[in-house]
Amino acid sequence: MSRIVYVNGRYVPEEQAVISVFDRGFLMADAVYEVTAVLDGRLVDFAGHMARLHRSLGELDMGIPVNDAELEAIHRELMARNALREGGIYLQVTRGAADRDFVFPDDAVPGLVLFTQAREIAASPLAERGMKVISIPDIRWGRRDIKTVQLLAPSLGKMQAKRAGKDDAWLVEDGMVTEGTSNNAHIVTRDGTLVTRGLSNAILHGITRASVLAFARETGTRVEERAFSVAEAQQAAEAFITSASAFVMPVVEIDGVPVGDGVPGPVAKRLRAIYIEESLKQAV
Ligand code: PMP
Description:
Blueprint: E1 4-7, E2 10-13, H1 24-28, E3 31-39, E4 42-43, H2 46-59, H3 68-81, E5 87-94, E6 111-118, H4 125-129, E7 131-137, H5 152-163, E8 168-173, E9 176-180, E10 184-188, E11 194-196, H6 207-218, E12 223-225, H7 230-234, E13 238-243, E14 247-254, E15 257-258, H8 266-282
Parallel strand pairs: 7-8, 7-14, 11-12
Antiparallel strand pairs: 1-2, 1-6, 3-4, 3-5, 5-6, 8-9, 10-11, 10-13, 13-14, 14-15
Bound molecules: 4'-deoxy-4'-aminopyridoxal-5'-phosphate.
């Protein structure tokens, strides 16, 4: 069955959802996006995703054709029209269509596209067995805090992991892990401290990361925001990633070396359970 997609003010079957070949999102990756998880037919961490969207737009001096109330209404309408109970809603804002030129056009009208993706996220076989990752150089640009649609580097990273028979890749810059290809990377030291890279232009400021760190602190886990190396992660008690698409996902192997006992650890399992439970309570 075909999805109903939102494109620039209209709800249309996906086969009829089209944008201009002059769209700057298409020509220049001049576009930003968000992915909000859906659980039990409701939006998870929605306020956080909207706040980050506005931050990304502001950093790129880009407009958006609708206000926040309209944006929320579009999310709800898409969930209703597609009977979406669990999965995600993808949202993309582009600077709009204009004759190809590096300089921003004066008269482009910003574009907006949203679509749903139905998927099981709470029940996950991968969460049961844990992810295996490889480490690769972080070849992305210097403003990873802006959630742009330039996703070729992470895409190549995931392909390299796939060809190696692994689940994902962690990105390394100056000897330190920045983040995963599409998620934030965390470790738990042998004394039980959750270590995660601090916020900067080097990583995306994950919405799931922020919620999970808050839950960890509330439940008495010590949190240290600092960079760590692949070697430190390999020797840690546990490792895990966070994202809106994966929630909390244990990492059990890095570059062929088992982390801890090589099975999902207690801290990652507990944080995953808390995150799902709280999301179900707080989703809107
Ligand atoms: N880092 C990168 C590079 C990502 O692409 C993502 C998810 N899009 C994340 C981190 C996780 O962010 P969030 O928890 O907001 O999904």
